[in-house]
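Hello again, I could really use a second opinion on something today. I've dropped the whole record in just underneath, so have a look.
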Amino acid sequence: MYIKCEANRMNQLVKNRQFVLLLGGQGISILGDQIYYIGLMWTIMKQTGSAMSLGMSVFCMTLPSILVMPWAGVFADRNIKKQILIISDFFRGLIMFVIAFLTLEGHFSLIAINLFLALISAMNAFFSPALSSTIPLILDKNNLSKGNAVFEFIRRFSTICGPVIGGILISFLSISSVFALNGLSFIISFFFSLFLKVPAVSQPEHSESFLTRFKEGFFYTLRMKRLLCLTLVGGVIINFFLAPVEIFLVVISHQLKFGSAGLGWIDAAISIGALLGALTIFFGKTGHLIRMAMIGLVMEGVALMLAGLLPDFISMAVFFGLLGLGVSFASIGIGTTSQLITEDDKRGRVNSFGAMLSSSTVPLGTLFGSFLVGQLPVHWILVCFGLIVAGSGMTLYFPFKKELLGTETKNGLTNQ
């Protein structure tokens, strides 16, 4: 009976034309982004030879998005989501073709590239909440976690294959080819979005000012205890303590002489674990979303603690694979829950607020982790961070206590 039910859900996803259009376009552009990222880093390092220049470019890729996100959410909550997706894809593709032309002709300018990266970052800030608020409108509640799992699978698959494809293209063709390919992926996504039909959401009867709608979205998140807890745990605490993991891996690999190849395998184990997690959610029984999120966060914490206590190569590869598995469970559980408990006309602003906090937390967590590495043994840092991550996951029990104890709706959640 269960297998038949799950097969019906998968069949519903495949037959959902709007979901297939959205998935097809975004799947291609997500892979294109991963391919181009390695080309971008390679180009800047080759042309400048400066790590500082590389850092400035990464800064240009993140800061504009953080600044624009809270305001972009206001637009995403209007009935112009399709237009935002179309315009963002078209101009991001156009910019990529311009960068490809500049690198092909040898007219490399770090200032120009950083300017283009800042523009793309700003457009990403508009695109992300529009996409996030569109998915729950084209999928019913029973299929939402499955749909999010498909997107998570594509993201993780792209992080594994994208750099490999990008490296091959650079070796056999040219650096400009990766930019052109990413530009093409955006244009393909643009054409997919042209045929997309996004259901309209109810809007206020009287016209509200931009600032009023912005404040409404901000205070809406603060008022809803469950939504605020999801934002703080999933977007702030976890991001802060997981952000420096890459630095810890580099330090451990150097201390234990794993070499660059060993570091690469452990790093890949995270993506492989996350990919398996997405597949497990898609083909398995989802169950209670908050319980799944809590299990994922505890997995992440336990994986960090075990990696600190047993720091040999095989063990760490297994433990960081477990970390990736937990990341998928936690991100899909928290993300889907947030979509379900947020009103249709406020998802864009809520998503933007959470994304802004998450994006701001990552560099702070990276700096904090870098500081601790110089003060304490890495294995003890991993143990402490693991305890904090696992403990923060357990805090989700309190705002969702009624649902977890059984007084829940069919979907395991009750809208507030």
